[in-house]
Amino acid sequence: MRLPFKDKDYFTNNVNSAFENIRSAYLRAIAPQLTKKKVNVMLGNGSIIQSDTIDLNRIIVFYQNLINALKGWTTTGISRSNTDDLHRLYCQFTQTAGKYHLHGYFGIQFHILQYYRIDKSVITIQKELAQIVDKASETFKSMAGRGNDILSDELERIGYANIGSEELFTELFENRTLFEHLEGKAMSIENEFPEFEEIHQKKIQLFSELNNLLVELYQISPVSIDYNKLMQGEEGVVIYFDIETIKNQKTNEKDSYINSKRITIDSTNQILSKLNEVEKTLQHIVNDEQS
């Protein structure tokens, strides 16, 4: 089950309080790493604007320090995932407390915006691409005209000169040999226009050069968000803890259901001890930042 719990018993009250302390400490500890800075960037039309970004390397260093400081906790290291422009950077920890398994998630969710770095090459490449588009349009017209002539001649040669469009379509659909024959004739047209491949390769080269001029800016709101808001795609600082019952130590079988009213004071204190370790570690990071 995921903290915070909704009941009002001894276990729930104390564990929820410990989790809130961790969340507050985490937000205080990571906040300095989310300081925004102004940078100048270029748009595709050559306009120069100023935008905000954070230094993602500072977040990575923060998580590595947290990993190093949380002794006794098992971690999968620092991970990153993304969907389109929505990105996550996070680390996860696990620990056992008696017959209970604790899993903690610390992360940020942010958006990436792409701009060009300030370089006059951006404008030069954009102009070249525009010229290529014009040249490609002329080449395509020539290829289309030549293609129509070749296919018309070929259809006449094989006895389909007077066939209607709908009848020809039906024939092509049912006669695979005829379809492949005419397809081969159409594809051979490219050999008469070597500039077609030259244009294609030049376009690939120019887009590659443009991509090399891109810079990424990281956008995030420095607020705490829960698991639901994480799934909904909101920006922010994420933390959650899951507690499971270990049903079988040998097979590591767990049960996500927790009956908080039946958890003993001794087990509660074991869990609180582990959670307090996390809060103290985060508090040390806060103190180190301030000193």
Short description:
The protein has about 290 residues and is of the alpha+beta class.
What structural class do helix, strand and pairing data support? alpha+beta
* Net shape: elongated
**Average pLDDT score:** 86
- Report low-confidence residues grouped into runs of 5 or more: none
Annotation, overall tally of beta strands:
9
The number of helical runs is 8
DSSP helix fraction: 40-55%
* Order of SSEs: HEEHEEEHHHHEEHEEH
What gap, in angstroms, lies between the N and C termini?
37 Å
Instruction: Kindly estimate the percentage of residues that lie in beta strands according to DSSP.
Output: 25-35%
Q: What does this protein look like?
A:
- The protein has 291 residues and is an alpha+beta fold.
- The chain folds into two domains: 185 residues, no CATH class; 92 residues.
- Helix content is 49%, strand content 26%.
- A hairpin with a 4-residue loop joins strand 8 and strand 9.
- The longest helix has 37 residues.
Layout of SSEs?
Elements: H1 10-30, E1 37-42, E2 48-53, H2 56-69, E3 74-83, E4 86-97, E5 100-116, H3 121-157, H4 165-174, H5 176-187, H6 194-212, E6 214-219, E7 224-225, H7 227-231, E8 236-248, E9 253-255, H8 265-290
Parallel strand pairs: 7-8
Antiparallel strand pairs: 1-2, 3-4, 4-5, 5-6, 5-8, 8-9
Helix pairs in contact: 1-8, 3-6, 4-5
